[in-house]
Amino acid sequence: MQLQPIYTETNDCKDCYKCIRECPTKAIKVSDNKASVIDSMCIYCGRCVSVCPSGAKKVRDGVSRARLLIKNKKEVYVSLAPSFVAEYGLNSNGLIEALLQLGFKGISETALGAQEVSKQVKHFLDARQSGTYISSACPVVVELIRKYYPQHTLAITPFMSPMLTHAKQLRKWYGNEIGIVFIGPCIGKKSEADSSLQSIDVALTFKELNAWLEKEGINIEKSDQAKTQNFIPNNASSGTIYPLDGGMVETISNSSKEKNKPCSHLCFSGQKSVRNVLDSLDQLKSDNAVFLELLACKTGCLNGPGMSDKDHFAWKQLTLRNIYLERTSAEPLPAKTDDHFNIERDFFNIKTLNPQPYGEEQIKEALFSIGKASITDELNCSGCGYDTCRDFANALLLKHAEPDMCVSHMRKVAHHKATVLLQKIPSGVIIINDEYKVVEMNASFARLIGGDLEFCYDANPGMRNADLNKLGTFAHLFKTAIITGKEFFEMPIQENGQQLQLSIFNIQKNKLVTGIVQSTAQPEFKKEIIEKRTREVISKNMETVQKIAFLLGENASYTDSLLNSILETQNTENAE
After folding, report:
1. What is the pTM assigned to this prediction?
2. Partner of 290 at 20 to 30 A CA spacing, among 297, 433, 492, 548?
3. pLDDT digit string (tens) for 420-438?
4. Which residues pair with 156 in a beta bridge?
5. CA–CA separation, 420 vs 418, rounded Å?
6. d(CA 122, CA 99)
Protein backbone atom coordinates (compact mmCIF):
# COMPACT_ATOMS: atom_id res chain seq x y z
CA MET A 1 0.00 0.00 0.00
CA GLN A 2 1.55 3.31 -1.07
CA LEU A 3 1.86 6.32 1.17
CA GLN A 4 -0.73 9.07 0.89
CA PRO A 5 0.46 12.36 -0.68
CA ILE A 6 1.03 13.89 2.78
CA TYR A 7 2.16 11.93 5.82
CA THR A 8 3.82 12.45 9.22
CA GLU A 9 7.29 11.38 10.26
CA THR A 10 6.17 10.66 13.82
CA ASN A 11 9.67 10.69 15.31
CA ASP A 12 10.01 14.33 14.24
CA CYS A 13 6.58 15.46 15.50
CA LYS A 14 6.91 17.78 18.53
CA ASP A 15 3.15 17.90 19.36
CA CYS A 16 2.98 21.69 18.91
CA TYR A 17 -0.46 21.47 17.21
CA LYS A 18 0.49 24.07 14.61
CA CYS A 19 -0.67 21.75 11.85
CA ILE A 20 -4.12 21.54 13.46
CA ARG A 21 -4.23 25.28 13.92
CA GLU A 22 -3.42 25.90 10.26
CA CYS A 23 -5.31 23.01 8.62
CA PRO A 24 -8.48 24.38 6.99
CA THR A 25 -10.34 21.08 7.44
CA LYS A 26 -8.78 19.93 10.75
CA ALA A 27 -7.72 16.71 9.02
CA ILE A 28 -5.25 15.90 11.79
CA LYS A 29 -5.44 13.18 14.44
CA VAL A 30 -3.33 13.31 17.60
CA SER A 31 -2.52 10.00 19.23
CA ASP A 32 0.24 9.41 21.78
CA ASN A 33 1.19 13.07 21.36
CA LYS A 34 1.87 12.57 17.63
CA ALA A 35 -0.10 14.30 14.89
CA SER A 36 -0.97 12.32 11.76
CA VAL A 37 -2.96 13.23 8.66
CA ILE A 38 -6.49 11.83 8.31
CA ASP A 39 -6.49 11.04 4.61
CA SER A 40 -10.30 10.81 4.30
CA MET A 41 -10.55 14.42 5.55
CA CYS A 42 -7.48 15.84 3.80
CA ILE A 43 -7.80 18.08 0.73
CA TYR A 44 -4.01 18.03 0.07
CA CYS A 45 -3.55 21.79 0.20
CA GLY A 46 -0.12 21.25 1.78
CA ARG A 47 -0.63 23.88 4.45
CA CYS A 48 0.53 21.54 7.21
CA VAL A 49 3.71 20.79 5.25
CA SER A 50 4.48 24.49 4.88
CA VAL A 51 3.96 25.43 8.54
CA CYS A 52 5.33 22.40 10.42
CA PRO A 53 8.23 23.85 12.46
CA SER A 54 10.01 20.51 12.83
CA GLY A 55 9.49 19.30 9.26
CA ALA A 56 7.50 16.28 10.46
CA LYS A 57 4.85 16.69 7.76
CA LYS A 58 6.26 15.16 4.60
CA VAL A 59 5.26 15.05 0.94
CA ARG A 60 5.41 11.61 -0.62
CA ASP A 61 8.47 11.41 -2.83
CA GLY A 62 7.74 10.69 -6.47
CA VAL A 63 11.28 10.83 -7.87
CA SER A 64 11.98 7.11 -7.37
CA ARG A 65 8.77 6.26 -9.26
CA ALA A 66 9.70 8.69 -12.04
CA ARG A 67 13.16 7.13 -12.36
CA LEU A 68 11.63 3.65 -12.50
CA LEU A 69 9.18 4.83 -15.15
CA ILE A 70 12.02 6.17 -17.31
CA LYS A 71 13.84 2.87 -16.89
CA ASN A 72 10.85 0.69 -17.84
CA LYS A 73 9.14 2.82 -20.49
CA LYS A 74 10.52 3.45 -23.92
CA GLU A 75 9.31 7.05 -23.95
CA VAL A 76 8.41 9.23 -20.96
CA TYR A 77 7.19 12.79 -21.42
CA VAL A 78 6.96 15.72 -19.00
CA SER A 79 3.80 17.76 -18.54
CA LEU A 80 5.32 20.99 -17.20
CA ALA A 81 3.02 23.36 -15.29
CA PRO A 82 2.99 26.96 -16.62
CA SER A 83 4.17 28.25 -13.22
CA PHE A 84 7.65 26.94 -14.11
CA VAL A 85 8.60 30.47 -15.19
CA ALA A 86 8.14 31.66 -11.59
CA GLU A 87 10.47 28.89 -10.40
CA TYR A 88 13.12 28.91 -13.13
CA GLY A 89 12.77 32.19 -15.03
CA LEU A 90 11.76 33.14 -18.55
CA ASN A 91 14.46 31.24 -20.44
CA SER A 92 13.19 27.69 -20.72
CA ASN A 93 16.09 26.33 -22.75
CA GLY A 94 18.24 25.27 -19.80
CA LEU A 95 15.30 23.64 -17.98
CA ILE A 96 14.30 21.61 -21.04
CA GLU A 97 17.89 20.46 -21.56
CA ALA A 98 18.20 19.50 -17.87
CA LEU A 99 15.00 17.43 -18.05
CA LEU A 100 16.19 15.70 -21.19
CA GLN A 101 19.41 14.80 -19.37
CA LEU A 102 17.31 13.07 -16.72
CA GLY A 103 16.06 10.75 -19.43
CA PHE A 104 12.76 12.24 -20.57
CA LYS A 105 11.87 11.95 -24.25
CA GLY A 106 10.24 15.35 -24.54
CA ILE A 107 8.94 18.30 -22.52
CA SER A 108 5.47 19.70 -23.15
CA GLU A 109 3.57 22.54 -21.47
CA THR A 110 0.51 21.74 -19.35
CA ALA A 111 -0.75 25.12 -20.58
CA LEU A 112 -1.73 23.39 -23.84
CA GLY A 113 -4.25 21.40 -21.84
CA ALA A 114 -5.36 24.60 -20.10
CA GLN A 115 -6.12 26.17 -23.49
CA GLU A 116 -8.29 23.20 -24.44
CA VAL A 117 -10.12 23.42 -21.12
CA SER A 118 -10.77 27.14 -21.61
CA LYS A 119 -12.08 26.50 -25.11
CA GLN A 120 -14.56 23.87 -23.99
CA VAL A 121 -15.62 25.82 -20.90
CA LYS A 122 -16.35 28.77 -23.20
CA HIS A 123 -18.72 26.68 -25.32
CA PHE A 124 -20.30 25.27 -22.16
CA LEU A 125 -20.98 28.71 -20.66
CA ASP A 126 -22.23 30.15 -23.93
CA ALA A 127 -25.02 27.58 -23.87
CA ARG A 128 -26.09 28.52 -20.31
CA GLN A 129 -28.58 31.26 -19.59
CA SER A 130 -28.30 31.05 -15.81
CA GLY A 131 -26.72 29.07 -12.97
CA THR A 132 -23.45 29.11 -11.04
CA TYR A 133 -20.45 27.14 -12.29
CA ILE A 134 -17.08 26.45 -10.67
CA SER A 135 -13.78 25.74 -12.44
CA SER A 136 -12.40 22.21 -12.16
CA ALA A 137 -8.80 23.39 -12.60
CA CYS A 138 -7.73 23.42 -8.92
CA PRO A 139 -7.65 19.87 -7.47
CA VAL A 140 -7.66 21.17 -3.89
CA VAL A 141 -10.88 23.12 -4.43
CA VAL A 142 -12.47 20.14 -6.17
CA GLU A 143 -11.47 17.92 -3.23
CA LEU A 144 -12.86 20.49 -0.79
CA ILE A 145 -16.21 20.65 -2.56
CA ARG A 146 -16.61 16.90 -2.96
CA LYS A 147 -15.76 16.18 0.68
CA TYR A 148 -17.19 19.17 2.53
CA TYR A 149 -19.65 20.85 0.15
CA PRO A 150 -21.18 17.90 -1.75
CA GLN A 151 -24.32 19.95 -2.38
CA HIS A 152 -22.23 22.06 -4.79
CA THR A 153 -20.63 19.16 -6.69
CA LEU A 154 -22.98 19.65 -9.64
CA ALA A 155 -21.73 23.23 -9.94
CA ILE A 156 -18.22 22.06 -10.94
CA THR A 157 -17.81 22.38 -14.70
CA PRO A 158 -17.84 18.80 -16.08
CA PHE A 159 -14.38 18.87 -17.63
CA MET A 160 -10.98 17.43 -16.82
CA SER A 161 -8.36 19.64 -15.23
CA PRO A 162 -5.60 21.10 -17.45
CA MET A 163 -3.20 18.39 -16.20
CA LEU A 164 -5.48 15.49 -17.12
CA THR A 165 -6.49 17.17 -20.38
CA HIS A 166 -2.85 17.63 -21.35
CA ALA A 167 -2.08 14.00 -20.47
CA LYS A 168 -4.89 12.89 -22.76
CA GLN A 169 -3.49 15.11 -25.52
CA LEU A 170 -0.01 13.67 -25.11
CA ARG A 171 -1.28 10.11 -25.33
CA LYS A 172 -3.25 10.95 -28.45
CA TRP A 173 -0.24 12.62 -30.06
CA TYR A 174 2.53 10.19 -29.05
CA GLY A 175 0.75 6.93 -28.25
CA ASN A 176 -1.09 5.43 -25.32
CA GLU A 177 1.95 3.43 -24.16
CA ILE A 178 4.04 6.45 -23.23
CA GLY A 179 4.78 7.45 -19.65
CA ILE A 180 3.80 10.89 -18.37
CA VAL A 181 5.25 12.78 -15.39
CA PHE A 182 3.61 16.01 -14.29
CA ILE A 183 5.86 18.62 -12.66
CA GLY A 184 4.39 21.65 -10.92
CA PRO A 185 3.84 23.60 -7.68
CA CYS A 186 0.88 21.61 -6.35
CA ILE A 187 0.78 18.75 -3.83
CA GLY A 188 -2.90 18.21 -4.66
CA LYS A 189 -1.86 17.01 -8.11
CA LYS A 190 -0.39 13.90 -6.49
CA SER A 191 -3.83 12.91 -5.23
CA GLU A 192 -5.40 13.75 -8.58
CA ALA A 193 -2.77 11.60 -10.34
CA ASP A 194 -3.41 8.73 -7.89
CA SER A 195 -7.06 8.68 -8.92
CA SER A 196 -6.20 8.94 -12.64
CA LEU A 197 -3.30 6.53 -13.12
CA GLN A 198 -4.51 5.77 -16.62
CA SER A 199 -3.64 9.39 -17.49
CA ILE A 200 -0.74 10.50 -15.24
CA ASP A 201 1.89 8.08 -14.02
CA VAL A 202 3.67 10.34 -11.50
CA ALA A 203 3.23 13.89 -10.19
CA LEU A 204 6.27 15.78 -8.87
CA THR A 205 6.65 19.19 -7.26
CA PHE A 206 9.30 21.71 -8.29
CA LYS A 207 11.02 21.04 -4.95
CA GLU A 208 11.32 17.36 -5.84
CA LEU A 209 12.67 18.17 -9.29
CA ASN A 210 15.27 20.50 -7.80
CA ALA A 211 16.43 17.80 -5.39
CA TRP A 212 16.59 15.28 -8.23
CA LEU A 213 18.66 17.60 -10.44
CA GLU A 214 21.02 18.35 -7.56
CA LYS A 215 21.50 14.66 -6.84
CA GLU A 216 22.32 14.01 -10.50
CA GLY A 217 24.70 16.97 -10.59
CA ILE A 218 22.74 18.71 -13.35
CA ASN A 219 22.93 22.51 -13.35
CA ILE A 220 20.14 24.29 -15.22
CA GLU A 221 22.23 27.40 -15.87
CA LYS A 222 25.06 25.37 -17.40
CA SER A 223 22.56 23.30 -19.36
CA ASP A 224 21.33 26.57 -20.85
CA GLN A 225 24.58 26.79 -22.83
CA ALA A 226 23.69 23.70 -24.83
CA LYS A 227 21.86 23.66 -28.13
CA THR A 228 18.45 25.26 -28.39
CA GLN A 229 15.63 23.07 -27.10
CA ASN A 230 11.92 23.60 -27.61
CA PHE A 231 8.69 22.48 -26.01
CA ILE A 232 6.78 19.82 -27.92
CA PRO A 233 4.73 19.83 -30.03
CA ASN A 234 4.79 23.67 -29.78
CA ASN A 235 4.71 26.50 -27.27
CA ALA A 236 1.51 27.30 -25.42
CA SER A 237 0.02 30.78 -25.64
CA SER A 238 -3.00 31.94 -23.61
CA GLY A 239 -2.77 28.99 -21.23
CA THR A 240 0.47 30.37 -19.77
CA ILE A 241 -1.52 32.78 -17.60
CA TYR A 242 -3.40 30.05 -15.71
CA PRO A 243 -1.16 30.15 -12.59
CA LEU A 244 -2.30 33.70 -11.77
CA ASP A 245 -5.48 34.17 -9.79
CA GLY A 246 -7.93 35.23 -12.45
CA GLY A 247 -5.81 33.71 -15.20
CA MET A 248 -8.47 31.29 -16.40
CA VAL A 249 -11.13 33.98 -16.17
CA GLU A 250 -8.99 36.22 -18.35
CA THR A 251 -8.84 33.58 -21.08
CA ILE A 252 -12.62 33.13 -21.27
CA SER A 253 -14.18 36.39 -19.99
CA ASN A 254 -14.90 37.75 -23.48
CA SER A 255 -16.35 34.53 -24.80
CA SER A 256 -20.08 34.95 -24.38
CA LYS A 257 -22.00 34.92 -27.61
CA GLU A 258 -25.19 36.10 -25.95
CA LYS A 259 -24.32 39.77 -25.63
CA ASN A 260 -27.66 40.59 -23.97
CA LYS A 261 -27.00 38.10 -21.16
CA PRO A 262 -23.26 37.76 -20.77
CA CYS A 263 -21.74 35.38 -18.24
CA SER A 264 -20.26 36.97 -15.12
CA HIS A 265 -16.73 35.81 -14.32
CA LEU A 266 -15.36 36.00 -10.78
CA CYS A 267 -12.14 34.83 -9.16
CA PHE A 268 -11.29 34.11 -5.52
CA SER A 269 -8.05 32.69 -4.16
CA GLY A 270 -6.97 31.49 -0.73
CA GLN A 271 -8.66 28.97 1.55
CA LYS A 272 -10.53 31.56 3.58
CA SER A 273 -11.99 33.32 0.55
CA VAL A 274 -12.89 30.06 -1.18
CA ARG A 275 -14.71 28.70 1.86
CA ASN A 276 -16.50 32.01 2.30
CA VAL A 277 -17.77 31.76 -1.28
CA LEU A 278 -18.86 28.13 -0.89
CA ASP A 279 -20.59 28.86 2.42
CA SER A 280 -22.78 31.47 0.77
CA LEU A 281 -23.07 30.00 -2.71
CA ASP A 282 -26.81 29.41 -2.38
CA GLN A 283 -27.31 33.13 -1.79
CA LEU A 284 -25.49 34.02 -5.02
CA LYS A 285 -28.33 35.20 -7.22
CA SER A 286 -27.86 36.50 -10.74
CA ASP A 287 -29.98 37.01 -13.86
CA ASN A 288 -27.26 35.43 -15.98
CA ALA A 289 -24.74 32.62 -15.64
CA VAL A 290 -21.89 33.04 -13.15
CA PHE A 291 -18.50 31.36 -13.53
CA LEU A 292 -16.24 31.11 -10.48
CA GLU A 293 -12.52 30.50 -10.69
CA LEU A 294 -11.63 29.26 -7.20
CA LEU A 295 -7.97 28.68 -6.30
CA ALA A 296 -6.88 27.21 -2.96
CA CYS A 297 -3.54 29.05 -2.86
CA LYS A 298 -3.53 32.77 -2.17
CA THR A 299 -2.50 34.66 -5.33
CA GLY A 300 -2.87 31.42 -7.32
CA CYS A 301 -0.48 28.62 -8.21
CA LEU A 302 2.52 30.93 -7.86
CA ASN A 303 2.19 30.40 -4.12
CA GLY A 304 1.81 26.63 -4.30
CA PRO A 305 3.40 24.49 -1.56
CA GLY A 306 5.65 22.80 -4.13
CA MET A 307 7.40 26.06 -5.05
CA SER A 308 10.88 26.47 -3.57
CA ASP A 309 10.47 30.24 -3.23
CA LYS A 310 7.35 31.46 -1.37
CA ASP A 311 8.15 35.17 -1.77
CA HIS A 312 8.70 37.69 -4.55
CA PHE A 313 5.05 37.67 -5.63
CA ALA A 314 5.36 40.82 -7.72
CA TRP A 315 8.34 39.44 -9.65
CA LYS A 316 6.56 36.13 -10.24
CA GLN A 317 3.39 37.78 -11.51
CA LEU A 318 5.32 40.16 -13.75
CA THR A 319 7.36 37.29 -15.18
CA LEU A 320 4.22 35.33 -16.00
CA ARG A 321 2.57 38.39 -17.48
CA ASN A 322 5.59 39.00 -19.69
CA ILE A 323 5.63 35.47 -21.10
CA TYR A 324 1.85 35.60 -21.58
CA LEU A 325 2.09 38.84 -23.54
CA GLU A 326 5.06 37.54 -25.52
CA ARG A 327 3.30 34.29 -26.45
CA THR A 328 -0.11 35.78 -27.25
CA SER A 329 1.22 38.73 -29.26
CA ALA A 330 3.63 36.68 -31.37
CA GLU A 331 2.58 35.14 -34.66
CA PRO A 332 0.96 31.83 -33.70
CA LEU A 333 2.88 28.67 -34.52
CA PRO A 334 1.17 25.76 -36.22
CA ALA A 335 -0.44 23.79 -33.44
CA LYS A 336 -2.06 20.41 -33.12
CA THR A 337 -5.82 20.88 -33.00
CA ASP A 338 -8.54 18.56 -31.79
CA ASP A 339 -11.93 19.63 -33.04
CA HIS A 340 -13.77 16.83 -31.24
CA PHE A 341 -11.61 16.21 -28.21
CA ASN A 342 -13.72 14.85 -25.36
CA ILE A 343 -12.55 15.91 -21.90
CA GLU A 344 -15.88 15.60 -20.11
CA ARG A 345 -15.99 13.95 -16.68
CA ASP A 346 -18.04 13.93 -13.47
CA PHE A 347 -17.01 14.33 -9.85
CA PHE A 348 -19.01 11.71 -7.97
CA ASN A 349 -16.35 9.02 -7.54
CA ILE A 350 -15.45 10.02 -3.99
CA LYS A 351 -16.83 9.25 -0.55
CA THR A 352 -18.50 12.31 0.93
CA LEU A 353 -17.79 12.96 4.59
CA ASN A 354 -20.73 12.51 6.91
CA PRO A 355 -19.51 13.79 10.28
CA GLN A 356 -21.08 12.18 13.33
CA PRO A 357 -23.43 14.70 14.95
CA TYR A 358 -22.93 14.79 18.70
CA GLY A 359 -25.63 15.99 21.06
CA GLU A 360 -25.31 18.79 23.57
CA GLU A 361 -24.95 16.37 26.49
CA GLN A 362 -22.08 14.55 24.81
CA ILE A 363 -20.32 17.84 24.10
CA LYS A 364 -20.79 18.91 27.73
CA GLU A 365 -19.35 15.62 28.98
CA ALA A 366 -16.30 16.03 26.76
CA LEU A 367 -15.83 19.61 27.99
CA PHE A 368 -16.16 18.49 31.61
CA SER A 369 -13.40 15.93 31.06
CA ILE A 370 -10.99 18.82 30.44
CA GLY A 371 -12.17 20.86 33.39
CA LYS A 372 -14.68 23.06 31.60
CA ALA A 373 -17.82 22.85 33.70
CA SER A 374 -19.40 26.12 32.57
CA ILE A 375 -19.42 28.50 29.63
CA THR A 376 -16.99 30.78 31.49
CA ASP A 377 -14.40 27.99 31.42
CA GLU A 378 -14.48 27.89 27.62
CA LEU A 379 -11.58 30.22 26.82
CA ASN A 380 -11.46 29.47 23.08
CA CYS A 381 -7.73 30.21 23.20
CA SER A 382 -6.87 27.88 20.27
CA GLY A 383 -3.87 26.54 22.16
CA CYS A 384 -4.99 23.03 21.23
CA GLY A 385 -5.17 23.97 17.57
CA TYR A 386 -8.96 24.17 17.39
CA ASP A 387 -10.82 27.46 17.08
CA THR A 388 -13.16 26.87 20.01
CA CYS A 389 -13.38 24.62 23.04
CA ARG A 390 -16.48 23.02 21.53
CA ASP A 391 -14.61 22.19 18.35
CA PHE A 392 -11.98 20.56 20.52
CA ALA A 393 -14.67 18.64 22.44
CA ASN A 394 -16.05 17.38 19.14
CA ALA A 395 -12.54 16.23 18.14
CA LEU A 396 -12.26 14.41 21.48
CA LEU A 397 -15.49 12.55 20.75
CA LEU A 398 -14.21 11.67 17.29
CA LYS A 399 -10.98 10.43 18.94
CA HIS A 400 -9.01 12.88 16.82
CA ALA A 401 -7.64 14.65 19.90
CA GLU A 402 -6.40 13.94 23.41
CA PRO A 403 -7.37 15.73 26.66
CA ASP A 404 -3.84 16.87 27.44
CA MET A 405 -3.86 19.03 24.31
CA CYS A 406 -5.86 21.61 26.30
CA VAL A 407 -3.35 24.18 27.58
CA SER A 408 -5.53 25.66 30.32
CA HIS A 409 -6.46 22.18 31.56
CA MET A 410 -2.82 21.12 31.70
CA ARG A 411 -1.84 24.31 33.49
CA LYS A 412 -4.39 23.52 36.19
CA VAL A 413 -3.14 19.95 36.42
CA ALA A 414 0.45 21.14 36.74
CA HIS A 415 -0.52 23.72 39.35
CA HIS A 416 -2.36 21.08 41.40
CA LYS A 417 0.65 18.77 41.19
CA ALA A 418 2.99 21.57 42.28
CA THR A 419 0.68 22.40 45.18
CA VAL A 420 0.61 18.77 46.28
CA LEU A 421 4.41 18.65 46.05
CA LEU A 422 4.84 21.73 48.21
CA GLN A 423 2.56 20.29 50.84
CA LYS A 424 4.37 16.93 50.89
CA ILE A 425 7.91 18.27 51.07
CA PRO A 426 8.96 17.90 54.73
CA SER A 427 10.88 21.18 54.64
CA GLY A 428 9.11 24.48 54.95
CA VAL A 429 8.90 26.24 51.59
CA ILE A 430 7.95 29.86 50.93
CA ILE A 431 8.06 31.89 47.70
CA ILE A 432 8.37 35.69 47.84
CA ASN A 433 8.00 38.18 44.96
CA ASP A 434 9.65 41.57 44.42
CA GLU A 435 6.80 43.30 46.24
CA TYR A 436 7.74 41.33 49.36
CA LYS A 437 4.48 39.41 49.21
CA VAL A 438 3.93 35.69 49.62
CA VAL A 439 3.30 33.85 46.37
CA GLU A 440 3.07 30.42 47.94
CA MET A 441 3.73 28.82 51.32
CA ASN A 442 3.33 25.25 52.47
CA ALA A 443 1.96 24.04 55.78
CA SER A 444 5.40 22.83 56.92
CA PHE A 445 6.73 26.39 56.78
CA ALA A 446 3.90 27.70 58.93
CA ARG A 447 4.34 24.85 61.41
CA LEU A 448 8.11 25.27 61.68
CA ILE A 449 7.89 29.04 62.20
CA GLY A 450 5.02 28.47 64.61
CA GLY A 451 3.25 31.12 66.66
CA ASP A 452 0.54 33.20 65.03
CA LEU A 453 1.63 32.16 61.54
CA GLU A 454 0.38 28.61 62.07
CA PHE A 455 -3.07 29.90 63.05
CA CYS A 456 -3.14 32.32 60.13
CA TYR A 457 -2.23 29.53 57.73
CA ASP A 458 -5.20 27.46 58.88
CA ALA A 459 -7.46 30.38 58.03
CA ASN A 460 -5.69 31.23 54.74
CA PRO A 461 -3.90 28.17 53.27
CA GLY A 462 -1.00 29.25 51.11
CA MET A 463 -0.92 32.72 52.70
CA ARG A 464 -1.00 34.36 49.28
CA ASN A 465 -0.24 38.10 49.29
CA ALA A 466 0.70 38.04 52.98
CA ASP A 467 3.18 40.78 53.97
CA LEU A 468 6.72 39.41 54.38
CA ASN A 469 7.47 41.84 57.25
CA LYS A 470 4.81 40.23 59.42
CA LEU A 471 6.06 36.67 59.06
CA GLY A 472 9.20 36.71 61.17
CA THR A 473 12.61 38.16 61.88
CA PHE A 474 14.05 36.72 58.67
CA ALA A 475 12.33 39.27 56.40
CA HIS A 476 15.54 41.27 55.88
CA LEU A 477 17.28 38.22 54.40
CA PHE A 478 14.60 37.84 51.70
CA LYS A 479 14.74 41.55 50.92
CA THR A 480 18.50 41.40 50.53
CA ALA A 481 18.19 38.37 48.27
CA ILE A 482 15.64 40.12 46.03
CA ILE A 483 17.50 43.42 45.81
CA THR A 484 21.01 42.03 45.30
CA GLY A 485 20.31 38.64 43.79
CA LYS A 486 22.46 37.10 46.51
CA GLU A 487 21.60 33.61 47.72
CA PHE A 488 21.91 32.30 51.29
CA PHE A 489 22.51 28.74 52.40
CA GLU A 490 21.87 27.23 55.83
CA MET A 491 21.52 30.55 57.63
CA PRO A 492 20.73 29.92 61.33
CA ILE A 493 17.56 31.64 62.49
CA GLN A 494 15.48 31.42 65.63
CA GLU A 495 11.72 31.78 65.57
CA ASN A 496 9.41 31.19 68.53
CA GLY A 497 12.12 29.36 70.44
CA GLN A 498 13.02 26.99 67.60
CA GLN A 499 16.47 26.62 66.04
CA LEU A 500 16.06 26.58 62.24
CA GLN A 501 18.15 26.76 59.11
CA LEU A 502 17.04 29.00 56.23
CA SER A 503 18.31 28.77 52.64
CA ILE A 504 17.23 31.37 50.06
CA PHE A 505 17.83 31.05 46.33
CA ASN A 506 16.61 32.68 43.14
CA ILE A 507 13.83 31.40 40.91
CA GLN A 508 13.90 34.62 38.88
CA LYS A 509 16.69 36.92 39.92
CA ASN A 510 15.47 40.16 41.57
CA LYS A 511 11.89 39.06 40.94
CA LEU A 512 11.13 35.78 42.68
CA VAL A 513 12.96 33.91 45.44
CA THR A 514 12.32 30.74 47.38
CA GLY A 515 13.13 30.06 50.99
CA ILE A 516 13.56 26.59 52.49
CA VAL A 517 13.36 26.21 56.26
CA GLN A 518 14.55 23.09 58.06
CA SER A 519 14.60 22.19 61.72
CA THR A 520 18.02 21.27 63.03
CA ALA A 521 16.45 19.06 65.68
CA GLN A 522 14.32 16.66 63.65
CA PRO A 523 15.98 13.76 61.78
CA GLU A 524 13.19 13.31 59.25
CA PHE A 525 14.41 16.38 57.37
CA LYS A 526 17.62 14.79 56.21
CA LYS A 527 18.89 16.14 52.93
CA GLU A 528 18.83 12.79 51.19
CA ILE A 529 15.10 12.41 51.88
CA ILE A 530 14.37 15.81 50.39
CA GLU A 531 16.54 15.06 47.37
CA LYS A 532 14.90 11.69 46.76
CA ARG A 533 11.34 13.00 46.98
CA THR A 534 12.11 16.03 44.89
CA ARG A 535 13.65 13.89 42.14
CA GLU A 536 10.61 11.62 42.11
CA VAL A 537 8.22 14.52 41.65
CA ILE A 538 10.41 16.16 39.00
CA SER A 539 10.43 12.91 37.03
CA LYS A 540 6.66 12.57 37.21
CA ASN A 541 5.95 16.18 36.35
CA MET A 542 8.60 16.86 33.72
CA GLU A 543 6.53 15.74 30.71
CA THR A 544 3.56 17.89 31.71
CA VAL A 545 5.76 20.88 32.51
CA GLN A 546 7.62 20.73 29.20
CA LYS A 547 4.39 20.45 27.21
CA ILE A 548 2.93 23.54 28.86
CA ALA A 549 6.13 25.52 28.49
CA PHE A 550 6.34 24.62 24.80
CA LEU A 551 2.71 25.50 24.05
CA LEU A 552 2.84 28.79 25.88
CA GLY A 553 6.22 29.76 24.41
CA GLU A 554 7.80 30.16 27.83
CA ASN A 555 11.50 29.68 28.52
CA ALA A 556 10.83 27.57 31.59
CA SER A 557 7.83 26.65 33.67
CA TYR A 558 7.34 27.83 37.21
CA THR A 559 7.12 24.32 38.65
CA ASP A 560 10.15 23.02 36.79
CA SER A 561 12.29 25.94 37.96
CA LEU A 562 11.17 25.61 41.54
CA LEU A 563 11.81 21.88 41.82
CA ASN A 564 15.20 21.96 40.13
CA SER A 565 16.24 24.92 42.25
CA ILE A 566 15.35 23.02 45.41
CA LEU A 567 17.35 20.07 44.16
CA GLU A 568 20.35 22.22 43.29
CA THR A 569 20.27 23.70 46.78
CA GLN A 570 20.39 20.26 48.33
CA ASN A 571 23.32 19.26 46.10
CA THR A 572 25.19 22.43 47.04
CA GLU A 573 24.68 21.69 50.72
CA ASN A 574 25.89 18.12 50.24
CA ALA A 575 29.01 19.36 48.44
CA GLU A 576 29.79 21.75 51.25
Report:
1. 0.76
2. 297
3. 777 777 889 999 999 999 9
4. 134
5. 5
6. 34
